[in-house]
């Protein structure tokens, strides 16, 4: 289950956004800064940094969708989702991926049973190694996770509950979630299609889905500039760019539901 190297196709993304100063009060309040007066021009650096930090959070949320939902050349998608191919496209087009037969619309009443069907298809060698290493997970949409929470409340009356609360450590800190039979369930915005379909689930281990960039600093290159002084209205402009791509390593170790 190990590989020495992974070749990823990296695509270019650019960030260009204008934000009206009148919308920035919450950003400054969260950063502990005194709100700039309405007529203030040429924001000090600490104000611009607060804007960049707030925007980075939005970029991270969007990256989930870029990494999962992208499909190169699909004109039905937003521009930033048709640059590269994402995880869902690659999973759907990999003949070795294990698909759960006849997926259905998930509800709080049936999601436990559908999780069981997905769980039973996880290869034994994956369960043996990665469940013990605590890096096996099930990815779902935020809406599906809410349905699972309702199912968990009903399941708590069982003599042998299938769901438990767990905390896992990620690059962004501690993530509190639910585990199904010991496997953490991770919510990602990338598992809700633009069409609104969110009956998608993917089970695999952490290192089997790879994200790459061309430098560690790619996602920290957003700059903010107060452009009111240049006659562009009461706006701050954000610019930046990065390169990114994704790849699946072993399709045969992925179980997909509805993909």
What is the structure about, briefly put?
Helix content is 27%, strand content 27%. The chain contains six helices and eleven strands.
- Rg: 21 Å
Strand content: 25-35%
Task: Assign a percent range to the helix content.
Answer: 25-40%
Main beta sheet strand tally, sense and closure: 7 strands, mixed
How far do the termini sit from each other? Answer: 23 Å
Oligomeric status of the shown chains? single chain
Number of helices: 6
Low-confidence stretches: none
**Class by alpha and beta content:** alpha+beta
Mean pLDDT value:
84
Give the overall shape, derived from the CA principal axes: globular
Tell me the strand order in the biggest sheet: 2-11-7-3-6-5-4
Per-chain topology:
Elements: E1 11-20, H1 25-30, H2 45-69, H3 87-92, E2 98-99, H4 111-120, H5 124-133, E3 136-140, H6 142-155, E4 163-170, E5 173-180, E6 183-187, E7 201-205, E8 209-213, E9 223-226, E10 235-248, E11 255-257
Parallel strand pairs: 2-11, 3-6
Antiparallel strand pairs: 1-10, 3-7, 4-5, 5-6, 7-11, 8-10, 9-10
Key terms for this structure?
259 residues; alpha+beta; 7-stranded mixed beta sheet; 4-stranded antiparallel beta sheet; 6 helices; 11 strands; 27% helix; globular
Descriptive overview:
- The protein is α+β, with helices and mostly antiparallel strands.
- Helix content is 27%, strand content 27%.
- The protein contains six helices and eleven strands.
- The strands form two sheets. It has a seven-stranded mixed sheet.
- A hairpin with an 8-residue loop joins strand 9 and strand 10.
- The longest helix is centred in the N-terminal third of the chain and has 25 residues.
- The chain is globular, with a radius of gyration of 21 Å.
- The relative contact order is 0.23.
- The model has no long low-confidence stretch (mean pLDDT 84).
């Amino acid at each position: 289950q190990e590989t020495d190297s992974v070749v990823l196709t990296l695509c270019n993304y650019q960030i260009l956004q204008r934000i009206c100063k009148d919308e920035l009060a919450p950003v400054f309040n969260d950063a502990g800064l005194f709100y700039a007066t309405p007529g203030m021009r040429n924001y000090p650096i600490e104000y611009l940094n607060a804007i960049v930090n707030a925007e980075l959070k939005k970029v991270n949320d969007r990256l989930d969708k870029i990494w999962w939902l992208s499909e190169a050349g699909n004109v039905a998608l937003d521009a930033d989702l048709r640059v590269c191919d994402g995880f869902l496209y690659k999973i759907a087009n990999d003949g070795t991926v294990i698909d759960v037969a006849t997926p259905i619309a998930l509800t709080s009443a049936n999601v436990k049973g559908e999780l069981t069907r997905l769980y039973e298809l996880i290869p034994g060698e994956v369960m043996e190694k990665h469940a013990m290493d605590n890096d096996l997970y099930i990815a779902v949409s935020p809406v599906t996770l809410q349905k699972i929470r309702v199912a968990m409340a009903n399941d708590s009356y069982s003599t042998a509950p299938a769901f438990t609360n767990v905390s896992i450590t990620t690059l962004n800190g501690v993530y509190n979630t639910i585990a199904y039979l010991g496997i953490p369930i991770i919510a990602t915005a990338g598992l809700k299609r633009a069409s609104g379909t969110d009956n998608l689930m993917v089970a695999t281990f952490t290192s089997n889905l790879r994200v790459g960039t061309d430098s560690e600093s790619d996602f920290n290159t957003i700059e903010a500039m107060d452009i009111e002084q240049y006659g562009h209205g009461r706006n701050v402009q954000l610019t930046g760019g990065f390169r990114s791509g994704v790849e699946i390593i072993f399709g045969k170790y992925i179980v997909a539901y509805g993909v």
